[in-house]
Amino acid sequence: MEALNTFLAIFVLLALALLSPANGKIQEHEFVVQATRVKRLCNTHSAITVNGQFPGPTLEVNNGDTLVIKVINKARYNVTIHWHGIRQIRTGWADGPEFVTQCPIRPGESYTYRFTIEGQEGTLWWHAHSSWLRATVYGALIIHPKQGETYPFPKPKRQTPILLGEWWDANPINVLKQATQTGGAPNVSDAYTINGQPGDLYKCSTQGTTIVPIDSGETNLIRVINAALNQPLFFTIANHKFTVVGADASYLKPFTTTVIMLGPGQTTDVLIKGDQPPSRYYIAARAYQSAQNAGFDNTTTTAILEYKSAPCPAKGVAAIKPLMPSLPAYNDTNTVTAFSKSLRSPKRVEVPTEIDQNLFFTIGLGLNNCPPNFNSNQCQGPNGTRFTASMNNVSFVLPSNISILQAHQLGVQGVFTTDFPTNPPLRFDYTGNVSRSLWQPISGTKVTKLKFGSRVEIVLQDTSIVTPENHPIHLHGYDFYVVAEGFGNFDPKKDTSKFNLVDPPQRNTVAVPVNGWAVIRFVADNPGAWIMHCHLDVHIGWGLATVLLVDNGEGLLESLETPPEDLPLC
Description:
Elements: H1 2-19, E1 26-40, E2 43-50, E3 59-62, E4 66-73, E5 81-84, E6 110-116, E7 122-128, E8 138-144, E9 159-167, H2 172-182, E10 191-194, E11 211-214, E12 219-226, E13 233-237, E14 242-247, E15 250-257, E16 259-262, E17 267-273, E18 280-287, E19 300-307, H3 333-341, E20 357-369, E21 385-391, E22 394-396, H4 404-410, E23 442-444, E24 447-450, E25 455-462, E26 471-475, E27 480-487, H5 492-495, E28 506-507, E29 509-512, E30 516-523, E31 528-534, H6 537-542, E32 545-550
Parallel strand pairs: 1-4, 3-8, 9-12, 11-19, 20-25, 22-23, 24-32
Antiparallel strand pairs: 1-2, 4-6, 5-7, 7-8, 9-10, 12-17, 13-16, 13-18, 14-15, 14-17, 18-19, 20-21, 25-30, 26-29, 26-31, 27-28, 27-30, 31-32
């Protein structure tokens, strides 16, 4: 009997060891979503924040850790939180996009997100995934190597997260509401920010300017996150070179550059050396604007890289004015292309070479004719239309009373259909002069079903409908390899030969070139409902999204976990 008890005890311990995260810690946090008075550009606004902080708290974890985050909604809006770039293996209920994996957390309610970091290291972030709340509800999520393990580069002396944001001198929810009512483009932002501060080049902003310390001889890691709502951004530091070592929590083959470009949603890890005369140097970011004839915020946000040994000004004397870097022209696509083509994985990677599902998605804008029951004030898009956007001519509509994942799990009919086109319904000259008859998409909640374990290739093709544009396309629940990108219309006959199947970069958000295309590959090994969307929030609101519905595989470890008991009700 004693032997049996011992055996059972060992069995239980082994089972617990298998089920618990390997050597990982469990971290518990509480996020209170609330209105907070925030003063920027001389004016005070009631901004929605987490725990009264703007930007929100930085989460620092190790690969293998489990996060348990209770989100309490004390704001007046519905909210959800998305953990951008976290794979969420089997924990799709914790992914966060409203009406895709959960109903929103209503004011006064709460929901606890539980997930484990598995095999990821680097810089990610978290943000609201409901309306335009992510304008102020966001923060860094930093994943260090497992304890006892090291970076694949010399350990930096210090690490600094840099969150690039976008600030409206207004309530962002009202900016969106007005655009929805008029059918026109929303007002552009009034400032960009670095760690929540616009910097010296804006009114009433000098005092709060973000200071990033460095010392002579140090090598520091700067973790750059583009948390802006609607704008790809160039980023640089005066007189300092970057060694790029990672992006989207995947390591890269190191290379040097003086400027990087990040689409909203993307992260880039760079090393900088304190190898300049001790002084103060501007860190700066401004727009990469690829859409022609579209309004944009053309201001520049700055922070200051300050050497600790920089001479202090004498009493009453103004501090040394920091040195300003030169930034690329707003429309400098050549610099963007040179940067993205430099991205490589550090060593050979296992890219799927045989493909089970070939998908071809056009992405771009559109115009809806003014509905008969609308007046001219509601159709202020070009020539009396309303702006829209689509993938494969389908403008995505979110459900409103149940999430797609719940409907899938419970077998609820009438919420979505599985007939999203795997190719454009009509082939045309995507980047040429497109007939106006193709500018108005259909709308619907259409998803693509993928078998568990299938090897998937997706061609993402920009169109010139309304205007071509660089679109940052983000896929939830997955990292993917960007095997090729180019300009014009993708041609499988000649472009397949350009595929990098040896060491392509791994990302969760790909900047599809303006008037061009990108090809991504991944294995559908994570069951759930995963939204794929443009990370320019103005475009996701217009319908530039779809959902990939990945079936369960065989057995428990290839199946979605059961929904948590506190999953919000609609």
